[in-house]
Amino acid sequence: MAADLAGGAAVGAVFGELLSRVVEAGRTVAMFGDTWKELASTLSSIEPVIKQIESFNKVFDNEQETKQLVEIIGKGRKLVGKCCRIRRWDLVRKAYYVKRLQGLNKSIERFCLVDMQTHQMRDMKKMLVEIGRLSSKEGFSNSKVGVVVGSCKAPRPPEIVVGFDEPLNLLKMKLSKDGVSVIVVSGPGGSGKTTLVKKLCQDGHVKEKFDNNIFYFDVSKSPNLEVILKRLLHVLDPSGVPEFQSVEDGLNQLKDKLEHLAMDCMLLVLDDVWSGCEILVDKLMFNLSNFKILVTSRFAFRRFDTYHLKPLNDDNAMTLFRHSAFMQNDKRRIPEDIVNKVMESCKGLPLALTVVGKSLCGQPVALWRKQAKQHSKGQSILHSNADILAYLESSLDTLDSRSAIKDCFLDLGSFPENHRIPAAALIDMWVELYELDEDDAIINLYKLSDRNLINLVLVRKDDQSEVDDHFNDRFVTQHDLLRELAIYHSGLDPVEKRERIIVEVSGNNFPNWWLEGKKQQLGARLLSISTDETFSFGWGYIQAPEVEVLVLNFRTRNYMLPVFMEKMDKLKVLILMNNGIYQAELSNFWLLYSLSNLKRIRLEKVLVPSLNTSSSHLKSLRKISLVMCNISQAFEKCTTKMSDVFPNLSEIEIDYCDDLVELGEGLCDLVQLEKLSITNCHKLRTLPEGIGKLVNLDMLRLTSCTELTTLPDTIGNLSRLTILDISDCLSITYVPARIGELYNLEKLYMRGCSGCNVPPTITNLQHLEEVICDEETAYQWESFQAYLTNLKVTVPEENINLDWLHIFM
Description:
By secondary structure, the protein is α/β, with parallel strands linked by helices. Helix content is 36%, strand content 14%. Mean pLDDT is 80; it is low at 1-9, 114-149, 375-387 and 801-809.
């Protein structure tokens, strides 16, 4: 039956039949009551996704890709039929089929929430290639082409949400009132404001009232109204890229657009608005009866209709705590009085209940007992959250000081709030600061994640990239309360004795100690300075000779490096991160050449000047990372060979650099290079023949360079190469025969290269152990496996996480 369905019937038709059967069974077979409701809810919620699948099939002929979904639905119909025939007193079979129905529910959810994203991503790649070709034919200027990236869709709430029925109903009532345009949900950090609002956005009645016109933005401490306006205008009119002369012009365009569309209702959610940022709400308050704004904030904005979120009551707090602290089959018996004391010390705050519960999950009774004794009282820097801080601090007690993991946690405060921190940047910092090897730094990332102190976000689930030390597709996020905890601990000592100094500058308002910089010498090893778009580069002067890692976060289109960098003789790592919309032009770049101990440079969203114009040499530099940069001048050929300027440079990473069309020959002078990674550079068309001079190259990664058409024949000179990755290089149709001369090649990645032909010389690669490819190319390798006896061909299950769309905003 399933085969017949897959062969012909439309996805929507068989899906509709399954939904009807489940709804009918819910009315007639009471013994599976809750399970029917859960399955029916899932099917109803993903109905729009099913329609998307059908529309994508029509445009891109993806019928084969949805065969799996049709088979799942066919099995589901059979399963529902079997459940309807079970007798009420047969409890054993009931328990078995409840698990089967739950498994069906998860399978459908997984396909529609993950696999559909994979299909969309593939189709996006096809469109990108076609658009790139068309634009090059028509002669479009790159400077006039803009892209609005980022979703306005409300994120899903956590799996377990308890105690919010009453506030949910109250908010729904407030939203339905006439004359109320702004509603504020106020409460302390970690009280569940964001979770409540996410739950509200997924409520069926709310979706119906606003006809799915619900737009969600994470505002945080430094709101960017320009980004919000561009996203909203793009969602309301996807046909073009919004352009406006000023914020006021953008606001006027948005109001005109809303009036023109005449929507029945629209809800704008502004999450985590800080005190002093309520002007953002004022600017977005349009005099439209069908337009509502819902705000969450730690602060009470008294002039707006405000709902104060209270802590969970004891019963709900215990439910949430137990979900986090105990595994399903946990047979340990923790005395109830200890469990109650630990839970009560969280004061009903969901974040504390979750973090503390997970930190104790699976731990011995002795640790539970110690926690119960130590944290009945606590002090706080979060003036309204004393008990939360006390308990969050307890989660740091389990961090092993010998592995520098606590220091690694504290370093996370070096980046702006709500910023997605590149995992690769953290690894660079920790390797140099704490003399860790990269494996130990990676282990610390996972330890922090396991303790729920950070979240590791994957752009694309790819276990192999981790094996090969490639972390460019991994990012770290952190709840703002945990970030504040890191900053608090970093600032306990007097400023001149601190190990790390974290400075956030609004305008030109430096802390008092900074203004006295000439009078005192700082001993910090890590210095982080964050400035906003109003900063005017009056740096002043500080003495920080011990700094080994310098993190500069900024948001301006022009950025001047501080002159006091020149005296940082021990500086090993420089991280320069532009959090604005546009690429920034740098001044004082020459300062870098005075840093004789500099080992790692990471530049994000800047215009990179030529890297080999100085007569000075960076003899210690080992790694350069360039992300979302303009690098057209970076590797230009000049009189000074790059190998003389960077005699020990062993690794280069280039990611999302859209202006890169052709790799400069100057880079090929770096004969000592061991790792070269060029990823997501969609306009890169060719590699220079000179790349064959990089005879020490161990890894060459060219992932998602969609316009790259071929590899140069000189690639055969790279005799030390062990890893070659051409995944998602959609335009590569053949691999040169000289690939057979890469005698030390161990791994070849070629997913997304369905049109790529592999030459027979591949049989010479006797050290080739693994090929990772798609089903479309896997058949080519069957004939080669007879000659390559150690070869394993892997067709991985693709799993793309579209959360990566947020990282560029």
